[in-house]
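Renewal narrative, Specific Aim 1. Our central claim is that a sequence can be written position by position from structural information alone. The example that follows is taken directly from our test logs and has not been curated for this report. It begins with the structure tokens describing the chain, in the order in which they were read.
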């Protein structure tokens, strides 16, 4: 089958391409220049007419929407752009998917929650985003759900990978540049390797492709890797694994600080831990822990040197 993958040059998109390729021809598009990923064609995903033409030309049997405006602080000043990519684009894709009976796999975020919980958030918990990014992603979720198309929306959290711009690569870079680092310790979530999310995504596609009728997959699910910790705790794990694998020569001094230590335009939820039991039961698996994922990813970075 032909698969349309938006956001193909991003962290998740790059991990999705090889997994989706086992099911058919992947047509990858991205807002970024084509040179950033061999598999991605440049496409203005914020232009409704252009997206409609793209869908008409590709005629996908499956749409995977990994495109998003993910710059959380910048979204506060770029509200229209954030809503265009995070809410309107999913609505356009979902509308075409419904009319043409093509399933849609969409991604959302833990930032739809207000962060005041004392237990992991389930899919049925009340939402209440604290920033424009969260508001726009919630609007995208609702647009997909309201469209009536066949879909699965995967809410995830704290995505990182071995490429692009993310917390893991930033910490490794700063370890070589600074003697000490202040890291936020009052926000807690479940860091998620983009490759783990891509693997779960492929299982969703496999379920659709096989036409399984027992426990059909549809609607909203949470997916995140297993370990819940703060950004400070995550940094400790990154440096521990990075030092052991020889990616950094030394571990900088770490100081835990509150969120107010940094001047950020967008407010972050203090608690972003997602309950993933629904998708674990549906797909019969257990998410990997942060150490396992860091070991695999950072070993790959070392071998690519």
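The sequence written for that structure reads:
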């Amino acid at each position: 089958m032909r698969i349309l993958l938006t956001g193909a040059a991003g962290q998740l998109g790059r991990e999705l391409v090889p997994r989706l390729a086992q099911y058919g021809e992947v047509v990858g598009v991205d807002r970024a220049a084509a040179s950033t990923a061999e598999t991605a064609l440049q496409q203005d995903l914020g232009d409704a007419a252009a997206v409609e033409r793209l869908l008409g030309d590709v005629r996908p049997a499956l749409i995977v929407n990994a495109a998003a405006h993910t710059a959380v602080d910048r979204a506060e000043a770029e509200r229209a752009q954030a809503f265009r990519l995070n809410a309107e684009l999913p609505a356009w894709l979902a509308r075409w998917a419904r009319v043409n009976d093509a399933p849609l796999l969409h991604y959302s975020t833990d930032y739809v929650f207000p962060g005041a919980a004392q237990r992991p958030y389930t899919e049925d918990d009340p939402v209440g985003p604290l920033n424009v990014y969260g508001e726009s992603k919630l609007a995208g979720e609702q647009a997909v759900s309201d469209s009536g198309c066949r879909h699965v929306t995967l809410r995830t959290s704290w995505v990182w990978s071995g490429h692009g711009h993310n917390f893991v690569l930033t910490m490794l870079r700063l370890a070589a540049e600074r003697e000490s680092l202040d890291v936020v310790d009052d926000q807690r979530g479940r860091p998620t390797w983009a490759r783990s999310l891509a693997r779960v995504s492929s299982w969703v596609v496999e379920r659709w492709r096989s036409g399984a009728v027992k426990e059909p997959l549809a609607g909203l699910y949470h997916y995140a890797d297993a370990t819940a910790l703060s950004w400070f705790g995550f940094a400790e794990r990154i440096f521990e694994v990075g030092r052991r694998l020889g990616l950094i020569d030394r571990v900088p001094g770490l100081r835990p600080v509150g969120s107010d230590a940094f001047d950020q335009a967008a407010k972050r939820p203090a608690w972003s831990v997602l309950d993933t039991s629904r998708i674990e039961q549906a797909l019969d698996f257990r998410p990997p822990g942060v150490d396992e994922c860091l070991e695999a990813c950072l070993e790959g970075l070392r071998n690519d040197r």
